[in-house]
Specification:
93 residues, mainly beta, six-stranded antiparallel β-sheet, three-stranded antiparallel β-sheet, 8% helix, globular
Length: 93
């Protein structure tokens, strides 16, 4: 019963980004403790993708492509960060 309640507090979110074939692509954000090596994307249908269970709420994130932190070019909302750059923002409802 507890697992169902926890699962309902999360939603499956698909993260996708284009990068050259053979790249090492990850996503990091508030939903995974900004861990740059935790969630790797794999090449699917010509782009890199992964689907994660993300807690409901507002989350900031970035992609890491071959050790370079990048904004999500498909994301329309950004927020400034403590590093002097921007983070992509997603709201999971």
């Amino acid at each position: 019963m507890m697992a169902r309640k926890n699962e309902s507090a999360r939603k499956r979110i698909k993260f996708t980004i284009e990068a050259k074939d053979g790249s090492r692509v990850y996503v990091a954000g508030t939903f995974n403790g900004w861990n740059p090596g935790k969630n790797r994307l794999t090449m699917k249908d010509g782009q890199y993708a992964t689907t994660l269970l993300v807690p409901r709420g507002r989350h900031e994130y970035k992609f890491i492509i071959d050790d370079t932190w990048c904004l999500d070019p498909a994301c329309r909302e950004w927020a400034p960060n403590d590093m002097g750059s921007l983070n992509s923002v997603i709201t999971v409802g």
